[in-house]
Design brief:
Strand order of the largest sheet: 3-2-1-4-5-7-6
CATH superfamily: Vaccinia Virus protein VP39
Largest sheet: 7 strands, mixed
Number of domains: 1
CATH topology: Rossmann fold
Order of helices and strands: HEHEHEHEHEHEHHE
Structural class: alpha/beta
Bound molecules: S-adenosylmethionine
Radius of gyration: 16 Å
Amino acid sequence: MEGGMGPSPILELGEHTLPLHPRAVFGRDLSLEVEIGSGKGRFLLEWAAAHPEVGIVAVERARKYLLLAAQRAARRGLDNVRLVHTTAEDLLFRCLAPASVAAVHVYFPDPWPKKRHRKRRFFRPENVSRVAEVLRPGGLLRVKTDHADYAAVIGELLAAEPRLENADEEEVFAQVPATHFEIKYAREQRQVFRFAQRRGVSP
Ligand SMILES: C[S@@+](CC[C@H](N)C(=O)[O-])C[C@H]1O[C@@H](n2cnc3c(N)ncnc32)[C@H](O)[C@@H]1O
């Protein structure tokens, strides 16, 4: 990373004891949040800047985007952001402890519209179940997509997960900054579907 920047926010999983713990990752007890597929990092950086009490771990499998977001985080001196170059599934299933995460953000996950590619979608029963498991009681899942068919599938999967309850969408999204894709879609006047879910207190 270039001179004059803060320390690299890239988290090398091989250098950490798993599951990840905020004190080990951030050097202090921050409230752990996760972003799945952070892209170029617009939401990530705005959110981290507005919430110094939060430590946010973003997973992005495209190295080019991960490096771009990492450079921007370093340039802004954000010390509560970490970027992990792996898959969402690896982060969720191997790196996070049950009931350890205060919020999971999934914005504009790839819709994989072709039928033969649908199994690649992030929203499938085992991933939804694991998201519910890593959320702590009262923790939030926020999702946005512009894809109507995928939104219908996401709605069904979330409704079928007994540990997740509907949360007040207006309230939950009130202060959430737009992502890169969202800004692009707003220009195209595309409809955006939002889901706000809360992990219930019962197991
Ligand atoms: C459509 S883009 C949305 C990016 C960003 N959230 C936004 O709204 O601007 C989806 C992003 O998720 C990443 N991605 C897709 N599947 C992933 C997976 N299984 N694990 C990690 N990242 C993934 C892609 O590389 C891409 O950057």
